[in-house]
Amino acid sequence: MPDDDHRSAGLHGAETDATYDRAGFGAAVPRGSRPALVVVDLTRGFTEPGFASGSDLTREVTAAAVLTTTARQHDVPVIYTAISYTPAEADGDSCAWLRKAPGMRALREGSDEIALDPRLEQHADDHLVLKKGASAFHGTGLAALLTGLGTDTLLVCGATTSGCVRATAVDAVQSGFNTLVVREACGDRARGPHDAALFDLQAKYADVIGLYDALAYFEGLPQRSTAASLA
């Protein structure tokens, strides 16, 4: 079920709920039988407070680790994403996003900042998508990969909620995928942007669901092998 905590309940109030209900927002998202999981940018530059762009995302990384482990147990494809800039991109003026957010220049290929958080594991059959922008779809092969995997439903988690997670979830539904965002496995640098992003996603683009709901969804899937999923 959708996460009602991010529909109303003290965040925006009854008047906002009434406005959104009148607009026809917030319907439940169908869940298909062939989901995939996208873990957005849970790299050290975002999950460790020692890096300028990072914050302490221990709880979110722990939730993502449970999510990825359970996904693999049920043959749900796991796709990691990371922002990675070449030296020319990081040091030059060709990337408009880096003009607005110059701190992101540290996310250069080969750096510690773009390494997957060591509390997560990348297995041999997991996928990695490198990107230059907020959305994991923009300028990448993610949509083609998901189509090749036969995906009908996309679960999204990672960092940051108000940035790359939100952009990826919006592009997921625009690309034709039923989209679920796993609340406990999403993190941000501040609570306000995090809550606002989840509220907006729940209203218009995705179902924001709890971790245990996501795990139960995986556990209720019909059995399939990876080989069969590619047939």
TrEMBL record:
Give the molecular function GO annotations: hydrolase activity
**Which named protein is this?**
N-formylmaleamate deformylase
Q: Which UniProt keywords apply?
A: Hydrolase
Specify the Isochorismatase-like domain's residue ranges: 36-210
Could you tell me which Pfam families the record lists for this protein?
Answer: Isochorismatase
Q: Which SUPFAM superfamilies match?
A: Isochorismatase-like hydrolases
